[in-house]
Amino acid sequence: MKAWVVEEQKPIEDRPLKLVDLPVPEPGEKEIRVRVTHCGICRTDLHITEGDIPLSKRPIVPGHEIVGIVDKLGPEAKRFKVGDRVGISWLNSTCGKCKYCLRGDENYCPEIKRTGYDVDGGFAEYVLVHEDYAFDLRHISLSSEDLAPIMCPGITGHYAFRISEVREGERLGMLGFGPTAYYILRVAKSMNIEVYISTRSEEHKRIAEKYGADWVGNIVHEDFPHKVDAFIFFPTAGKLVERALANTVPAATLVLGAVTMSPISIENYTANLWGRTIKTIYQVRRDYGKEFIEIADRLKLGIEKEIVKFREVPEAMLRLKKGEVNGMVQVIKI
Ligand SMILES: [Zn+2]
Ligand SMILES: [Zn+2]
């Protein structure tokens, strides 16, 4: 099978992705083999390819926003049939036995394996996954090209939205407006939540306004029109955390979405931090994924996207790096 692999991490301009021929993988006991039809490209794939994150497996096939068709079953696999449509996210497997797995917090499992990072992902014609970790898409009406980005930014957005504990009729602020924030905006507006978005990008401002953001601006320069009940924060600039907190009410929750962050300092504890709760997003979990796929299907949640040919993945990732994506996301059609 054809697959894009990273053997040596380097800037995308220096062509770290190589198109290679690999044997078609054989599913083990409870695994299924999936013929990948669509795979979203995520900024994390860019970080893995360029070396911002160390490699966990070498070579690695990136890609963790996978939609495809079950093509072969392992000897003990019973959940799906050949021909069924399934999805695969960043969460590839967990141990199922540790205290986190047993209490339903599988995203904290120390044995977690991640798709396109610890195990080969979806920038390929075929991929393997344990049947219990595939999302069942048989009853879902959304198209596969709309479902692929739901596997990462969609599910992550739902995770952030859920732990922000924002309720109907309240106010939600967001700093940074990528695809994750887009999904949060769409769901929040369906729940009569007032949404304020801070972003620098003109293209993102346009999309945020188009989908009903109640205020779009830049909180580096001006405050939100009202303090918010919950705040979801995406940048890696720790110095902006206090600006965000200064725009929240004392009962608010601030959710940090980044994996790395420059130092955070709080100068005015009493005015800006006292009473607030700070949470972070950590990996992903299946229950949130399942919930969000249902919500997205009910709301018919499409997204503005660029369809990428399989041969043109490196060029697409270069556009992602340069901020030249046409729409909110890129989806490879395989
Ligand atoms: Zn991702
Ligand atoms: Zn575990």
CATH structural architecture of the largest domain:
Alpha-Beta Complex
Unreliable sequence segments: none
Number of helices: 9
Query: In terms of quaternary structure, what is this?
Result: single chain
**Sheet bearing the most strands, described?**
7 strands, mixed
What is the H/E order?
A: EEEHEEEHEEEHEHEHEEHEHEHEHE
Shape: globular
**Helix share of residues?**
25-40%
Compute the average pLDDT. 97
Distance between the termini: 12 Å
Total of domains: 2
The total beta strand count reads 17
- The CATH class label of the largest domain is Alpha Beta
CATH H-level homologous superfamily name of the largest domain = Medium-chain alcohol dehydrogenases, catalytic domain
> Percent of residues in beta strands?
25-35%
Keyphrases for this structure?
single chain; 334 residues; Quinone Oxidoreductase, Chain A, domain 1; 2 domains; seven-stranded mixed β-sheet; 9 helices; globular
Task: Explain what the structure shows.
With 334 residues, the chain is of the alpha/beta class. It has 2 domains: 2-142 and 302-333, Alpha-Beta Complex (Quinone Oxidoreductase, Chain A, domain 1); 155-280, NAD(P)-binding Rossmann-like Domain (Rossmann fold, 3-Layer(aba) Sandwich). It is 26% helix and 26% strand. Strands 3, 4, 5, 8, 9, 16 and 17 form a 7-stranded mixed beta sheet that branches. A 6-stranded parallel beta sheet has the order 12-11-10-13-14-15. Strands 1-2 form a two-stranded antiparallel ribbon. Helix 3 packs across helix 4 (179-190). The chain starts with a strand and ends with a strand. One zinc ion binds next to loops.
